[in-house]
């Protein structure tokens, strides 16, 4: 099983320590930070911890965080290439697996969050066979991904309903 995911426009590779500088810059940018980590800028040590946690999760759970890059700059399926434009992935354990994502602000409004989200949900449901994935995301993106309200401000996609609908993402 490969942990590399590809879409029409994106290549998703598990984050590694070689992504540290790019992740630090991405997650500490003021526009991105406003939506993540309760608005607090992560320290370099915290970024190291997030990457290490993702690597442990890939080893034990089969999922973690993927770095997003333009598919055209990531020609080798095994190795990431090109600039990091965001992150998408799964975190949590058991019945509490959540989809997460962030994009560089200059990439907002292009449908890339939906494209990455669909790839992650397909992986969650087809490869990992998870029953449900939750999210705290924008209502419009939740709808595009086939996620339904699940508590206050949260959404969920159930495996059986998601497969039945086979949501497509317009790009």
From TrEMBL:
One of its GO terms (molecular function) is acyltransferase activity, transferring groups other than amino-acyl groups. This is GNAT family N-acetyltransferase. PROSITE patterns: GNAT (PS51186). It comes from the Bacteria. Gene3D superfamilies: 3.40.630.30. Residues 37-170 form the N-acetyltransferase domain. It holds the Pfam family Acetyltransf_3. It comes from Actinomadura barringtoniae.
């Amino acid at each position: 099983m490969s942990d590399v995911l590809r879409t029409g426009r994106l290549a998703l590779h598990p984050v590694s320590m070689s992504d540290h500088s790019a992740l630090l810059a991405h997650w500490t940018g003021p526009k991105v930070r406003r939506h993540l980590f309760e608005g607090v800028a992560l320290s370099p040590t915290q970024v190291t911890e997030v990457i290490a946690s993702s690597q442990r999760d890939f080893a034990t759970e089969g999922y973690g965080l993927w770095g997003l890059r333009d598919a055209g700059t990531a020609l080798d399926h095994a190795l990431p290439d090109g600039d990091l434009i965001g992150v998408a992935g799964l975190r949590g354990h058991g019945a509490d697996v959540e989809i997460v994502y962030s994009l560089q602000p200059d990439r907002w409004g292009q449908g890339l969050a939906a494209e990455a989200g669909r790839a992650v949900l397909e992986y969650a449901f087809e490869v990992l066979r998870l029953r449900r994935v939750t999210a705290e995301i924008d209502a419009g993106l939740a709808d595009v991904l086939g996620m339904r309200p699940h508590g206050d401000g949260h959404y969920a996609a159930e495996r059986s309903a998601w497969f039945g609908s086979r949501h497509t993402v317009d790009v």
